[in-house]
Amino acid sequence: MKPSEQYLAALADATRHHAEHKTYSGKFLRPHAPVIKEMVDRLGCKTILDYGCGKGEQYTWRNADQTGSIPVGMTIEEYWGVPVTKFDPAYPPFAAEPMGKFDLVICTHVLGSIPVLDLPWVVDRLYSLSNKALYIAEKIAPVKKKVFQKPDLHPFGWSATRWMTAIKREKPIEVVLSVREKRADGVFVERFNL
User: Fold this and answer.
1) pLDDT at 125
2) What share of the chain has pLDDT > 90, as a percent?
3) What CATH topology corresponds to 5-193?
4) Separation of alpha carbons 40 and 45, rounded Å
5) Measured on CA atoms in the order 158, 162, 168, 174, is the torsion positive or negative?
6) pTM of the prediction?
7) Mean pLDDT in residue range 13-20
8) Domain coordinates in residue numbering, the chain
């Protein structure tokens, strides 16, 4: 399936946003690192693709928190023990199309930026790139920044159930969906095996 005009417009907006702002650093991957580490170890993953990695700063960051899950001084790649192929079509340094298949495909806080019309082919693509597992994370509360031309065309604020329906495929790989919701009493994270 070819990208829609809305997808191409959103991609152009995201590319401009990357060039003009320091956001899309990839830092939202950090809280997911321990869960992904468990998957890497349990499934024996040797290759990882971060689909929509942003600027990739999550892979140059070194943990300085003594109480964190990642050992002090380590990068996420060192912690996982696997080099990560980085892909983000809106960021020129990582815009090269991924080649081949990967044991694990990570897609954190990306699908919410994809027009609803294009979600089926993007999700199918994630599955087609994975040999063993897929890890998807999305925010289910409304987003603060809407940098796209037509935010009503994007799945902002979808429920966990709606995300599960959009993501689930009958494929022989492990799929984990992590949803994050900010509530009055704090941030709530729930993970689903699909």
Assistant:
1) 95
2) 45
3) Rossmann fold (3.40.50)
4) 5
5) positive
6) 0.87
7) 83
8) 5-193
